[in-house]
């Protein structure tokens, strides 16, 4: 009787552990994963098997939209190349559909680069006036040519698509 109770308890614990793991895995997914799954509503503008585009809920301009891959990756270098192909064509379509003559396509990677959601995404931000849309200061420098030539890159920069992008052609 005691052995049977232990087996039953072990089975219950295993099932409970599986459910807790699934819940934690779901809770750890990005808000964009939840939008893709239909768990959070969005104002969809475009959707296909690989990409979803929708209006930004914190826009900095009218018609500010986001284009995201359905494959989850936090940063661009983590996204497999086969999931990149549709993102910019969709951003281009949104830019044309927005009617804006000027716009920004913006993609950030990491908190220091102002990424707020850990899921690759491109912003399409119409620039309809000097006070609306993306407003940036560009702290350009004017280094001497010799200084620019001193900048080197790790890797051979052959852009071999089979190579790990983190190991080819990165700044030192």
From TrEMBL:
Transmembrane segments: none annotated. InterPro entries: HINT (IPR039384), Histidine_triad_CS (IPR019808), Histidine_triad_HIT (IPR001310), HIT-like (IPR011146), HIT-like_sf (IPR036265). The active site is at residue 121. Residues 31-134 form the HIT domain. PROSITE patterns: HIT_1, HIT_2. One of its GO terms (biological process) is nucleotide metabolic process. A motif (Histidine triad motif) lies at residues 119-123. One of its GO terms (molecular function) is catalytic activity. PANTHER family: ADENOSINE 5'-MONOPHOSPHORAMIDASE HNT1 (PTHR46648:SF1), HIT FAMILY PROTEIN 1 (PTHR46648). This is HIT-like protein. It comes from Tilletiopsis washingtonensis.
């Amino acid at each position: 009787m005691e052995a049977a109770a232990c087996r039953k308890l072990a089975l219950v614990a295993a099932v409970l552990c599986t459910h807790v793991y699934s819940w934690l895995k779901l809770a750890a997914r990005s808000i964009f994963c939840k939008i893709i799954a239909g768990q959070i509503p969005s104002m969809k503008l475009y959707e296909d098997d690989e990409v979803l585009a929708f209006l930004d809920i914190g826009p900095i301009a009218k018609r500010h939209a986001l284009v995201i891959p359905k494959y989850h990756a936090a940063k661009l270098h983590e996204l497999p190349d086969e999931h990149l192909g549709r993102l910019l064509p969709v951003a281009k379509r949104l830019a044309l559909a927005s009617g804006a003559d000027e716009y920004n396509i913006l993609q950030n990677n990491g908190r220091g680069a102002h990424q707020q959601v850990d899921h690759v995404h491109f912003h399409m931000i119409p620039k309809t006036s000097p006070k609306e849309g993306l407003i940036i200061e560009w702290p350009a420098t004017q280094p001497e040519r010799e200084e620019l030539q001193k900048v080197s890159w790790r890797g051979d920069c052959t852009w071999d698509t089979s190579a790990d992008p983190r190991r080819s052609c990165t700044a030192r």
